[in-house]
Amino acid sequence: MTARALDPGIALSVACGQALLGRRQDADRERLSAAVAAVPDVPSAARGLAQVAAAWLAGDMDDHALSVALANFNAPFCAAYRRRFDLAQTGTVETDMPLFAPSASTHAAHSADAMED
What we know:
Structural class: mainly alpha
Number of domains: 1
Helix content: 55-70%
Strand content: under 5%
Distance between the termini: 35 Å
Number of helices: 6
Number of strands: 0
């Protein structure tokens, strides 16, 4: 199986997760630094995460700031492919639905909790 190159934003997300959840080895920091450098310098969610990650690497931001930025970056990916269902069939109305997809908010909360531990 050949490895595919990841989108720079996704590679950055993975590197952030490894740096936060890993043992904080130099290899993790180097991988994160390389992922930050690979993100194009154009306004995007990936660029915002890269700026927070660069500040974290410099020691200007703490783990919580990076974990929140990472959760916010990942949330749309978690909600993008949720299963559609007929609201009338379930007995709910539009106003009963949460602002964010339950799976996305739950994933973001679990990710943030895991990164804080």
